[in-house]
Each structure stands twice: as structure tokens, then as C-alpha cells.
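Final report, closing paragraph on structural work. Over the funding period we assembled a curated collection of sequence-structure pairs, and we close with a single example.
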Amino acid sequence: MTDPASATTDHHPYPQRWLALAVIAVTVLMIVLDATIVNIALPAVSVDLDISEANQQWIVTAYTLTFGGFLLLGGRIADFWGRKRTYLVGAVGFALASALGGLATNEALLFAARALQGTFGALLGPASLALITVLFTDAAERAKAFAVYGAIAGGGSAVGLLLGGVLTEYADWRWCFWVNVPIAVLAVVAAWRIVPESRAPGETTYDVPGAVLVTVGLASLVYGFTKVAEAAQSGDGGSPWANGPALTFILVGAALVVAFVVVEFRVRNPLLPMRLVLDRNRGGAYLTATLVGAGLIGSFFFLSLYFQQVLGYTPVSAGFASLPVTAGVLVAAGTASQLVPRLGPKPLMVAGGVFAAGGLFTLSFLGLDTAFWQVALPGQVLLGLGLGFTFVPLSNLALVGVGEHDAGAASAVLQAVQQVGASIGTALLATFSVTAITNSLAERPPTQEDPTAALVAQVDGYTTAFTWGAGFLLVAALVSAVLVRASKDDLPTGAAVHAG
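Its predicted structure, as stored:
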């Protein structure tokens, strides 16, 4: 493939970098949307394809397992095979998998399509972020580029809920899949001409043992925590952590990840160079991302349930009601892009964690008939502001200063820890929520004279989850305060990609 922009120099940035960012941003949004756009369509999909309640979780799990499991391998493929080439293959594959999902006539075909979406997403995600990393080397410009990424990462989930609600209510659930096809086609056509190729210099042999260990290990961890969350949500009375198969998958996954770390210290060309994780600032960024991923799940998942099951909102209304988060993210991401080069990443990451925690804590005051404007609106705006202030410096810190050889790997680690954090957060928060609901029903069982007791118990469960989610985000702020030492002068630049 001929590329008009495959050469590198050290002086002049690639002239079409902002156009390239616009193209990359579209596909990043597609990946983020896909994590939530299907959630609101789950009831319609299950009825249409006759999917049992027990198997319903596979619509989500088939995607998260393959996406989380293949991320690190996808990052290394992007580095060695070429980031643009990996991006194009990922986008085409994602579009074909989405088309297959929309055409599904039974649950097996739908689950297979979701697994394929996750697999190609694991190529597309790291390649997209790595391209941003090598395209923007000026500190101020890179902060702006990561502001775009941060806005998408923080607000895309809420947009997904809205779009999923609109498509499900006014068109058909199948459009939740088909909407990806024209987006991916446009992105591929534009990227072919605009986005420059880049690949890692030096030795590019693949670490096959490491790839097997981390792929199976991450998939096992994600699956185990998903089964814990499923057990918690089933409300069968037992402890979800006493679920034997789930614990087995978690322990096996953890053992495989530990074995992977040992292998990475020994092999010549590791899948994950441990210098990426052991750097104090970058390690702090990855740990913060894990905690933010764990806390963030408490907002969209439980808030969506509150709007629909307690307040009786339609899917579209629930989607619109979730938009204040996106508004807060957009405002904060734009502001953060201006402040990161002036203040450095640490103050914004700490402030962002505190703001986001305050937002979830505000949501913990929701009641059975609380007016939207009283609690839900200010809580979501605060949450969005916090996420915007967190994601922009977080992405910057996790990736800036990474050599061109490791850009895809560093990008993949950032996305992998968010994925694992979200899986752990789902399990933990669902457990806390179900426990609170059970205790509430024990204290105040529903009767004919008190028919609202069941709804009150649900609200107790959701607000408990918000409180714990706020705790995760506060710990994330604390981690940033203690581990991150980088100042504005420590944000290094690397080699740029530009037209030859």
C-alpha cells in the first residue's frame, strides 16, 4: 500500500494531523458507543430472538471478553504490523461484524457477531490511540488531541444510551448494529488518504507465549467478574462471591496474568515492556484508570436503571436524561486541554477525581420521587466535569514520553486496565447494590398497604452503588496525588510522523 505520509523526521509535524484526528475520533466514538448502545436494546433483542434471561448477559459479555482479552496483543500488532494498517483492518472487521449482528436470526449468531466486534475493536482501539500519540508531539497540541479523546471516552457512553434508545424505540434494535457500518466505511475511505502510516522501529518479533498468557488471563478475569455480577443481580440469596465457577475463572486469570509478568521480564522482545508499567507516573496513570473504570460503571448502569425502572422513563427519555454527563465532559475536556500544558497533569487528575466522586455522591441522594433538576442534573454535570478533567491528563500522562516502538502497547494497557476496572466495578457495585436491596426488603417488605416498598428497596440499592462508586473515584484522586510526580516540564515530546 502506498502512503503519502510514511516518512518521519524530527522537525516538522504531519500537516494533516488535525484531519487525521477527526477521522480517528469517529471510530473511537464508534467503539465507545458500542459498549452502551446495545444495553438499552437488550429487552427488545431478547424478545425478538427468544434469548433467555440466563443467556442475555452474553450479548454484553461476548464483546467485553474478546475486547478485553485481545487488547494487549492488538496493541503490539499495531506497533509491529503498522498502526494505519491495523486501524483499517480493525475498522473493516468491526463494520462486517456489526452488519452480521444486525442480520442475526438466533442467539448463537448474535453472540458470535458480538465476539467478532470485540476482537476487531481490540485492534482498532490501540491503533487509534497510538496514531494520536505519534501524530501530535507538541505538548499543547497533544493536550488538545487528548481532549478530543477524553471527551469521547467520558461522554460517549451517555450518547450511546441516547442513540440506543432512539434507534430501539423509533426504528429497530438491529440499527444499533447497522449504524456502525456507514460510520466505519466513511472512516476507512478517509483514513486511507489522510492518516499516515507508522510502525515501531527496531526488532519486531512477536512474544507468542506472552500473548497467549495475557489474552487467556484477561479474558478469564473479565469473565469471572462478570459471573459474580450476574450472580449478584440474580438475587438468589447466596453470596455472589461464593460462586465456585466465577472464583475459579478469577483465580486462574490472576495466575495467568502473574505468569505473563514473569515471562515479560525474561523474553527479549516482550508484548508488554515492563518499563511502561514500572515508570512511577505511568503506573500511577494506569492505576487511576483502573479505579475510574470501576467507579464509572456505577453511574451509567445504575442511573439508567433508576430512570427506567423507578421513574418509568422510556428508553429515549432515559437517554436524554443521561446527556448532562456528556455536557460536563465536553466543557471540562476543552478546559483541561488548555490547562495541562500550563499546570501539568497531576492537579487536574486530582481535581477531576474529586469532582467525579462528588457527582456520584450527589446521586446517592436520589429518592423515589426526587425531581430530575434537584439531584440527577447537578450530580451528572459534576460527574461529567470530573471525568473530563481526569481523562485528558490521564491519557496524556499514560502515553506521553512513550517511545515510538511502544506507542501501541502503552495505548493497549490504558484501555485494558479500564476494561478490567469496569468488569471488577460491575461485580463489586452489583454486589453492594443487591445486598442493600435485600436488607431494605427485610426491614420493609412490600404489602398491599405499602406497594412502594419494592421500589424504595431498588432506590436504596442504586444509591448504595453510587456511594461506593464515589469511594472508588476518591481513591483514584488519592492515587494521582501520591504516585504522580510529573510537572508540565516533564511532558516530553517524541518523533513526529509527517509527509515525506
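The first strand starts at residue 8 and ends at 9. The beta strands are 8-9, 496-497. We thank the funder for supporting this effort.
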